Amino acid sequence: MASGGGSGLASNQNSQEAASNSAQCAAVASLSNMPVSAPAPSASPPVLGLHREPMYNWQATKSSLKERFAFLFNNELLSDVRFIVGKGRQAQRIPAHKFVLAAGSAVFDAMFNGGMATTSTEIELPDVEPAAFLSLLRFLYSDEVHIGPETVMTTLYTAKKYAVPALESHCVEFLTKHLRADNAFMLLTQARLFDEPQLASLCLDTIDKSTADAINAEGFTDIDLDTLCAVLERDTLSIRENRLFEAVVRWAEAECYRQQLPPTSENKQKVLGKALPLIRFPLMTVEEFAAVNPKPRVDYIDRPRCCLRGEECSINRFQQVESRWGYSGTSDRIRFNVNRRISIVGFGLYGSIHGPTDYQVNIQIMESDKRITLGQNDTGFSCDGTANTFRVMFKEPVEILPNVSYTACATLKGPDSHYGTKGMKKVTQESSTGTKTTFLFFSSPGNNNGTSVEDGQIPEIIYYI
Fold first, then answer.
1. Within this chain, do residues 26 and 82 fall inside the same structural domain, yes or no?
2. pLDDT on residue 433
3. Which ranges of 233-348 would DSSP assign to H, the alpha helix?
4. Any idea where the BTB domain is (predicted)?
5. Fewer CB atoms inside 10 A, N or C side of the chain?
């Protein structure tokens, strides 16, 4: 009895089997949202799904070449080779026809007709799932594609192993249609394992757009170190660095468990290895970095992650502009919350009533209840003396979660400015795609330089959805 891993093309894929089995099972659960269950045991390799039509003159009932070949699929009639597919009690005995297989696959052609062609009429394929092999044969016999959440990963593996790129493309298309933030990491691992750059790129784009949802998905902690590094190297993740670091720590704890190591700080740094320097600690605020213990002793990237995607929007909370708002070193503050996740990139501030002037300004966003600074920038802006607002931007976007209380702060140094009146407590902005974002404003307690819901500074919030 021969083994099906003898050809050069096939043997190059065999090393993938051990690495892919557990990831494939998890991917099945991720795609189907159903628990993965083992097939019922069988006493010996059965021959399943064989045609039972009368053998005599069967050709007369098939009007096309496609129908005749489809009739021969999984059929003992005229077969000249049989495959024992799978392992142990799960194995199945599947008949086939060398000519059909060789015509559709260079690997089968080498197996049957090459210089080291097998002479055996029964070939073992222990590394292939029976359902996936039947999907491959069905495609070779009839061009029909039968894949689903339970079989797509094993079918992709089988199509790669036997060099059937058309079926590979169908598998990748299926995965692309079912790609979501909660399975993007799992599919990214598979795409890298099977060398599918198009699928990998789509997975990375999904992770960029919905980073928080992707890293909170169950499959994130199951990815391999190389996949983790590939994501951490990106400049386009839409998440604050401290939240990304928290997710990386969860991954390290899971990896310690896989390696049977106690989840100490030293062991977590050890399993992270080359991934640790990819965390951009300089992008954290002082308060966020203070929570990192112990402090790692390596050099870190300080390049911002350019994570802005979607549409830039802005809201103005005042209906009228008046003159003369003074500054003495006290911050203007206003509290707010929103109904959906957004990324705030800056404020629009009022400028001087005395003509063109330069201001120095420190802007901040704080989580009100925890008194944590989420983003800040010491910068400046030039105004032209009009009652317009002037953009002052953060160094990187600040993620704002729904129904959480935040405080916007601006500390200006400069002459008296315009200010807003007839403030609105509730402001709703609709984007060009119809997405509605609602801000609710509240006066900030304490010394806030007089700014309130009704009057003051910080008239405009600039954000991305």
1. yes
2. 83
3. 241-258, 265-272, 286-290
4. 79-149
5. N
Which pLDDT band, with edges at 50, 70 and 90, does 292 fall under?
confident
Element (H, E) at 72: helix 65-72
Summarised one tens digit per residue, pLDDT across range 356-366 is: 999 999 999 99
Distance CA 140, CA 145 (A): 10
Report the domain count for the chain. Answer: 3
Place 26 in a pLDDT band, splitting at 50, 70 and 90: low
DSSP 365-400: EEETTTTEEEEEEEEEEEE-SSS-EEEEEEEEEEEE
CA dist 158 and 196 (Å) reads 14
Q: Tell me the average pLDDT of the chain.
A: 85
Domain that holds residue 206: 181-290
Q: Are residues 192 and 122 in the same domain?
A: no
**H/E run at residue 84:** strand 81-85
Q: pTM for this structure?
A: 0.57
**Quick one: which of 63, 131, 137, 65 has its CA closest to 100?**
137
Answer yes or no: are the C-beta atoms of 256 and 271 closer than 8 Å: yes
- Look up tokens 């080359």; give the residue: 274
Q: What residues contact 236, with CB distance under 8 A and at least 6 apart?
A: 208, 305, 306, 307, 309
